[in-house]
Amino acid sequence: MPSSVVDPITLATVWHTMQTLCREMRHVMDRTAQNYLMGQLHDISVGIWDAQGRTVAVPVGLPVQFLGASFAVKSITEKFKDNLHPGDIILTNDPYHGGHNCHLPDWGFFRPVFFDGELIFITLARAHQEDTGGAYPGGYFPNGYDIHAEGICIPPLKVYEKGVENKDLFELIWNNVRWPQGVRVDNYSMIASTALCEKRLLAMLKKYGKETVKACIDEMIQRTERAVRAEIRKIPAGTYFGESATDDDGTVLDEPVWIRVAVTVKGDRMTLDFSQSDKQRKGFINSVYAATYGNAIAAAVLVFDATLADYHNEGTMRPIEVIAPQGLVVNCEYPATVGASPVNVGIQVMEAVLMALSQAVPQRSIAAWAKHRGDYVFGVDPRTNERYVRTSFDYDGSGGAVWGQDGYQGLSALTALAAVTRGNIEEMEIRIPFYMHKLEFATDLQGAGRWRGGAGVYWEAQNQGSDSGMATGSSDGDTTFGPGAEGGQPCPPCRTYIQRGSQRIRVKPHRLVQLKNKDVVIKISSGGAGVGNPAQRDPQLVALDVRNEIISPAAARKVYKVVVDPATFVVDAKATARLRRGATTKPAKGAAAKPAAAKAASGRAAKQRRRATSTRASRRA
Amino acid sequence: MKRIAIDVGGTFTDCLVLDASGALSAFKSPTTPQDPTQGVRQALEQAAQHFEQPLSTFLKDVDLLMHGTTLATNTLINKAGAKTGMITTKNFRDLVEIRRGIKDPRVSMYNLFIPPYEPLVPRYLRLGVTERTLWNGEVLKTVSPTEVREAAEKLRQEGVQSIAVCFLHSYANPQNEEAAANLLRGSFADLYVCASHDILPVWGEYERFSTTLVDAYVGPVVSQYLRKLERELKRSGLKGAMLMILANGLTQTVEHCAKRAVFLIGSGPAAQPSAGTFLGSLTKQRDLLTMDMGGTSFDVCLLPGGEIPTTTEMWQEDHRVAIKIVDVRSIGAGGGSIAWIDSLGLLRVGPQSAGAEPGPACYNRGGTQPTVTDADLLLGYVPADFFLGGSIPLDAGAATKAVKSVAGPHKMSVDEAAEAIFTTVNMNMANQITEVSTKRGYDVRDFTLVAGGGAGAVHAAFIAEQLGIEKIIVPSTAALFSAFGMFSMDLGRDFARSFVSRALRLDLRRVNSLYAQMEKEARANIRSMKIPVQDVVLNRTAEMRYVRQFHQVEVEMPNGKLGAADLELILNNFHKRHDELFTFSMPWREVEFLTFRLKAVAPRAPFKLSKIKPGKADAKAALKSKRPCRFHGRQLDTPIYDSDRLLANNTFKGPAIIEEPTTTVVIPPGFACAIDAYKNYILTRR
User: What are the domain boundaries of chain A?
Assistant: First the structure.
């Protein structure tokens, strides 16, 4: 489809330059930051928007941190109007007051980029800070009274004006966080990444001219929009339902909180309607609209043709509407706490959308990934006598299966879409007083399926630091389980324990507990969910899984209906055929509940809740 | 005395000889994959014949033989490595499969429909043993010899030929790894054994272990080859030094490389950018793009400002190789690439290659599948009677028969199918160039393409046309591009010592003594490479960072005994470099040193390309014949020029073809060709 304004090589160059720039921004942070979450785990997002707030480039990051950032960009240009200048930098971490941010630790630095006196782009570097103040470090403090208990709230404010740092403002901000010197380094690192982006964008504008670049942006967005509309048209029209719950809200304990979505496909439009979700809660699992939006869009695009994956922008979002009425857990109002929401209910938003779309397009089924099992340990490192906070993705399970492929092994929670990484054990032991006992795949700890989830993980380490606090704020999955698809099994349950001498103490998600010196933390994290009936899995693959001790011989027989010799790992073809007779047509026992698309809305939610509860009961037994 | 550069590619073994006068002679022989030493020998014999000497006399007069080989890379790509086992710290055997939770980094985060990572060593061949070293290097549990022996026995029963020993924190104290590796080497002499502290002594277990596994995987194949080659060359009379080209563009002895095979990943192509910079400075071009299209693979490297890029972020296939490496990217596209029809009925070319055995169908050596060379022949681009100077006669009948197999299903004529194969492989290569240029934000139209490889000059102009590139340089040694690059390289190697210290408390006496050790080692090492010691240039750098950062910045350091004033200079250099790289510095923040490095290099032997006779623009005197060639669907009667008769300043317009003994240069309509004083062909788009 030729454009009348720009030649194809310039278009391709401009398009890819923007994508590359984002990767370079991320690289600058990776290379210069000093906090574990930024430097090792990549809990960072970067992107480029245009002056109208249209999303131009978002190749890599956490959906919740940046796919809904156009709301913040628009609110910044409205707030500052003509008072935006080259060299300005706006900082915000506020979910409310025009910040549209997911939770307080994810600080975002926005830099307007001018050319010939005209605002052309706004670029963003957002990253999880070592600390954001509040009652407890790390940002996952359960049962806070309101958002102010979760940390310092920074509405969109200029921390640089025309290239000059506002030292007073920064002093105030840094004085309200723990480890101010470290946060200062990380802030400069983020600002530097926007500076690099500006430099490169200006070079590009100079080379091709403002009008050509703008024409390229229009063309990029139009092309993506056309392609996404064509993708949506391929999905059979109709309304599909999906739902998912988190264990509890951290305040009212042991009562799950539900996200429900009705996905309606009509022609080349898609609506993701979360109106049936639970009401806003006292606990910290509430999500602001921009955060729900980012996660919902990220889930929806996964079913589209993979060749589009490198080219998502504003054009992707135009045909998709996200409905989330105010006052619900998916669109909470000030001063609701939001600490855990990038993960819980972030994961649930994505799982619900994927559950619905997997029914619409079985050949693009995506099963749930393992839940995030995060905890934050806050104590003193006796080696330096300094306070530290341990944050990590190391103990997370694995990816869920997709139609045609087993789950990717080792990936961390769905809301990160593999944009984050795990730390090296060596780096962790150098930095914090934890001594690792074990990190290995666990046997029989993944959702079974024709394509199985990636393996679950067993993690064990000893606290060699002071007596400390441990918040399991962003973990989930003890009593609610990510769904499989097309007869694949859900994620199995996860557990966290503290081993204190001979005493084994269970720690549920969303809790704050004491961790003593020499305590051993044990985390048993499930793998991903499965796709398709396990009794249809290739017996040779089951035999290999048995040989690799990912599946036990007993589970091979019981769940996959495959008989494998435990010494030679040879499949007993006859016995397997006997076991499988009939098993391939019935839905597998314990398979994810599959809500019928045609059911009327009334009573649906209650029925599904019952079904999910019974799933839960049977998994426990 | 003479110097020799040998580059063993997937299809051809190239041999370039530099004599005392600075003149180059080029030889090419098919690679012999079953035993690549045979191909090397054949190439050397050709050279000896050219100088009218027996091989032993010829080799006696060689003071330096440089050798690059794609053997390690191809072994990994073709999954042809050894069955490999891993012995690692108990309870941590999955770290190489969990691999920091990394999904294939080349795949977008929005694409989940890709197969999971398949590790080089499956889980059942990864065994844990009791041992543990702490973060500070203290050994908490010494390694149990009984467990190591039991694990090795078990692995050997499974049939492994190679074992990687990978323990936590071995970079801080290699004691346990060394003990285990020594035990294995002592008790299991038939196994290739490597240890992570020896391969990549830096912290970060995933990157270190993964690199070590790649080493173990390619090690047996590579070391057997190297040892055999060195033995045979010595037996044949080679007295001079033999140096291997490493992935990082430096050099090393065979003995060293045979134990650390991973450093030969990318060995041949690593020399290619040097050829580019040499030609770039000769022709005064700054922004260069080098391409090398051989029989099996297409290698490309982007050199903005002529700077050779290195990286430690390399992924080879799906595996992380964290050694420092010259950033050359490869795909399977070459003269031997096979054309086929996929399940959707689409014409595809490569990555499978007919290689040297059986070779393209037109070689008449048993190959029946259509290849790029068959297409080149049928389009009239390569001569049937003058391929490799006539040493391989090409059979158009066999090529036609092979190409028919893809023409039929598409209801195309043979000519049309040949052109479709040609265009498809060009597109694959153009896409790979886009990958390293456009997709990194460079406008490829600003670059000059330096085209090498036996098939490179046949395809270069068509690729340039697709990408909008204006200018192409083809050296007359194009067919031996990497070998040519080896002469353009500095020889040497690097040394490193880790010594972590905050700048404020840095013990300069300790640093001075580290450098004294390294310089002594460097001199001895350079002597072992048989390079005169007075020629050596020492270059010091330090890896530094602001306290608590995760990555280092490499900073230049002064030579000689370091004092307090030097420290201040070094710190200033660090702030400056941090600012250059990342747009900011933090002089208020404490700085720490991590690793002190020394690079010892001998500048490349001075060599000049000899000038050819000047002439006028008119090239009629070199016109050899005319033959019909197909360009963009039309047969055009195309003048063929004899390279030996071309003179400097000759210019002509396309369509035209220049026949070199080792390659063919195709100048399509729309391009003009000028011959410069060094017999480089400069193609420009009109």
Answer: 8-226, 366-532, 534-586
Q: Which member of B123, B445, B578 has the closest CB to residue A549?
A: B123
Please report, for residues A259, A281, A476, A488, the alpha-carbon distance to residue A250 in angstroms, rounded to integers and kept in the order given: 16, 10, 11, 30
- The answer to whether residue B377 is domain-embedded is no
Q: What percent of chain B has pLDDT over 90?
A: 71
Residue B135 at interface with chain A, using a CB cutoff of 8 Å:
yes
Q: Is the pLDDT of residue A604 over 60?
A: no
Same domain flag for B115 and B196? yes
Q: Are strands B634-642 and B310-311 parallel, antiparallel or unpaired?
A: unpaired
Region A11-40 average pLDDT: 89
In terms of CA atoms, which chain A residue is nearest residue B91? A438
Domain contains B31: yes
Assess contact for B436 and B303: CB atoms under 8 A.
no
Query: What gap in Å lies between CA B109 and CA A59, rounded to an integer?
Result: 8
Judgement on whether residues B67 and B87 belong to the same structural domain of the protein: no
Among A45, A124, A185, A34, which residue's Cα sits nearest to residue B584?
A185
Contact by Cβ (8 Å): A345, A64: no
Helices vs strands, H then E, count in chain B: 17, 34
Tell me if residue B401 falls in helix, strand or coil.
helix
Q: Which two tokens stand for residue B518?
A: 């390294």
Cβ <8 Å between A30 and B551: yes
**Contact by Cβ (8 Å): B249, B274:** yes
What's the structural domain count of chain B?
Answer: 4
**β-sheet bridge partners, residue B658:** B641, B665
Mean pLDDT of chain B: 92
Q: Which of residues 426-465 of A touch B (CB under 8 A)?
A: 426-427, 429-430, 435-441, 454, 457
pLDDT the model gives residue B581: 87
User: If you average pLDDT over residues B445-455, what whole number do you get?
Assistant: 94
In a domain, B111, yes or no: yes
The confidence score (pLDDT) of residue A4 equals 54
Tell whether B132 and B250 lie within a shared domain. no
Three-state SS annotation for B454-504: CCHHHHHHHHHHHHCCCEEEECCCHHHHHHHHHHCCCEEEEEEEEEEEEHH
Rounded distance, CA B46 to CA B26, Å?
10
What is the reported pLDDT for B360? 95
Q: Residue with structure tokens 């003179």? A: B647
The Cα B574–Cα B579 span in angstroms is: 8
Contact check, Cβ <8 Å, B98/A181: no
- How many other C-beta atoms can be found within 10 angstroms of the C-beta atom of residue A113? 22
3-state secondary structure of B129: strand
pLDDT digits (tens, 9 = 90+) for A48-75: 999 999 999 999 999 999 999 999 999 9
What span, in angstroms and rounded, lies between the C-alpha atoms of A109 and A28? 14
**Token pair 């390309």: residue:** B609
Phi, then psi, of B444 in degrees rounded to 5: -65, -20
B169 and B193 co-located in one domain: yes
Q: For residue B485, is it within any domain?
A: no
B41 shares a domain with B129: no
My answer on whether B206 and B126 are in the same domain is yes
Residues B161 and B35 in one domain: no
State the pairing for strand pair A238-246/A164-165.
unpaired
Share of chain A above pLDDT 90, in %: 85
Indicate if B54 and B103 belong to the same structural domain.
no
Average pLDDT (A142-158) is 95
Domain limits for position B86: 79-223
Which among B92, B111, B594 is the top mutation candidate for probing chain A, defined by the most A β-carbons within 10 Å of its own β-carbon?
B111
Q: With 0-12 CB in 10 A as exposed, 13-18 as middle and 19+ as buried, what is B434?
A: buried
| Segment A303-326, tens digit of pLDDT | 999 888 888 999 999 999 999 999
